Amino acid sequence: MGYKLYYFNGRGVAEPARQLFKLAGKEFEDIRYDKDTWPTHKAEMPFGQMPVLEVGGQKIAQSGAIFRYLAREFGFYGKTNVDHALVDSFFELYKDYTNESRNFFYIARGMREGNKEEAHEKEFVPARDKFFGAIEKQLKHNKSGFLVGDSVTYVDIQVADHLHSLLAVSAHELDAFPEVLKLKEKVEHLPAITKWLKERPASDF
C-alpha cells in the first residue's frame, strides 16, 4: 500500500507525520508544494488545505486524523484504549496551546506586525506555563521519559518537534521545565529520528 504525504516545503504541521514514517521504517512520497504551485493543487485536496495523507488512493485531511491513523498503523499510540485517550488528551492540549500562542510566533518570525515582548508576556507565557506545566507533571508521574506508557507515541513526536522550533526562537524558554527538555533529547536520540534530522531539507519552520 503506497503512502503519499502532501504539504508545503517546510516542517510545519506535517513534520510529525514524516517522523512517524521514519520511525516505522515505512516508505512514503514526501510531496511538497511551494506558494506558486500550491494554488493549482488546492482543489485536489478534500478540504482545500494541507497536510493531506493519501493511502491507497484515499486522501485523509487534518493533521490530527493523519497522526492518529499513522500511530495506529505503526504502533505509536500506546497499548490500551486508556493509553489512546491519554495520548489524544495531550494532543488536544497541544492544540489549545498553539491557538493561544500563535500570535506571538507570527510576530517573532516576522510574519505579522506587533510588539514581540508584549505578545510574549501577555499571550505566550500563560499558554506556555499551562501546557508545559502539564507536560512536566505527566513526565514526572510516568517516569519512562515518555508521556504515556513506556514507549514513544505520536504526541511525544509532536511535542519534541515543536520544541525544536520554539527553542530556535528562544533558547532558554523552557529552562523551568527540565523533564520536557529531556523528552526532546530522548526523542531526537531515537536512531531513525537522529538520521532524519541530519538529512531532512532545511527550513525555518
TrEMBL record:
It comes from the Eukaryota. GO terms for molecular function: glutathione transferase activity. It comes from Mesorhabditis belari. Residues 80-205 form the GST C-terminal domain. This is glutathione transferase. Its EC number is 2.5.1.18. The keyword ATP-binding does not apply. GO terms for cellular component: cytoplasm. Pfam families: GST_C_3 (PF14497), GST_N (PF02798). Transmembrane segments: none annotated. Belongs to the GST superfamily. Sigma family. CDD domains: GST_C_Sigma_like, GST_N_Sigma_like. Keywords: Transferase. It catalyses: RX + glutathione = an S-substituted glutathione + a halide anion + H(+). One of its GO terms (biological process) is glutathione metabolic process. Residues 1-78 form the GST N-terminal domain. InterPro entries: Glutathione-S-Trfase_C-like, Glutathione-S-Trfase_C_sf, Glutathione_S-Trfase, Glutathione_S-Trfase_N, GST_C, GST_superfamily, Thioredoxin-like_sf.
